[in-house]
Write a structure and sequence with these properties.
The chain has 14 helices and no strands. With 368 residues, the chain is mainly α. α12 (289-316) packs antiparallel against α13 (330-354). The radius of gyration is 29 Å and the shape is globular. Residues 261-270 have a biased composition (Basic and acidic residues). Residues 253-286 are annotated as: Disordered.
Length: 368
Amino acid sequence: MANSREHAISSLIGSFSSLGADDCPQQIRHLEVLVAEELGRVYDRYLALWHGIVSPADPLVIFKQVDIRKQLLDQLHSKRLSSLRRQVDSLTKALLARSALRKKITPVSKLKLVLKILAKLELTMGKIKFAIACINPDLKPAEVRDDQDFENLKWFISRRLAIRIYVVNRHLCTLLATYRRLMEQFGHLFAHHEPQKTIDVITLTETCLDSIDEALAFMNKSELNLLQDEWRLTIDSLSETLASFVKFDNWTPPRSPDQADTARRSMGEDPREDEPTPESLGQPHLLHPAMSHCRISVIAAVKLSRLFVAQLLKISQDTENFQMVPDLSTRELEKFRTMTSTIATSMKNVVSNLSEEPDEARDGIWKQ
């Protein structure tokens, strides 16, 4: 179907040649409208890439067809993503080309080139959409069993690859939508009329290309590399939790006399003793010894948790003395992942509960 669409576009482009010379305003306008329509159509077709293929077979049946999925994965790695990268780059270069600077490029030839690139890009995206629907069929974690022999087609890996492909698709669709809007508003010379838009689309293009590079880099990673990435995220999360708690610990909200009396009663003290002075109300107050010990313990717990994950990461990098078994199933790999991520989540929850202040108020305080 994509091939027939490409042929139809080629025929339509050829029919415009009969309208007159390359600088004919009518022909240029017709092509601008056609380019805008094609940009919008491709955008609409691939915006929801995760919908998968039409009338797919049972996801579990697809998941177990390892040979077919492996072939599609190899093609995605060696051909599809690289082709998409070239086509995205070519699309931007073609749309930003200036006829005045390059005499061989006329408005009509420029727009015809854009249409040809779009046709190829759509064909590539169609193949990527089919491939990722088979590589990562719509399965729930509980449905995945005994995939320890699937190598890089385990659900643990294929699900993460699909997420990265969806990111690529999102950036691509953002770029297509931007080009369509600019083409409708300013025509093919939008870069000349709106210089700032040139910077914007170059930035969007680079973001899209970077996401493709990240997807390709992901496909070169081992299971151990993926777990190491998760551990690094856990370390970062624990560091953020520690920094947040220390920042809160160093700031104590000013208390009114009534709040001070209530606090002393809760600690078993006489509220009449050491009544706060006006000067002391705006100053940090001394913590109750039990609360002070609690906060010290929390800081120690977060630091020890971070040290544990950091040591785990360090040990895993010792490839001479440490090797990871290759036949772990998705469930076993998920246990490795959740073991550390649960620590980070638990520490974050503890800190959040001890911080006492509502999140919105605390955020406002910390921004001061």
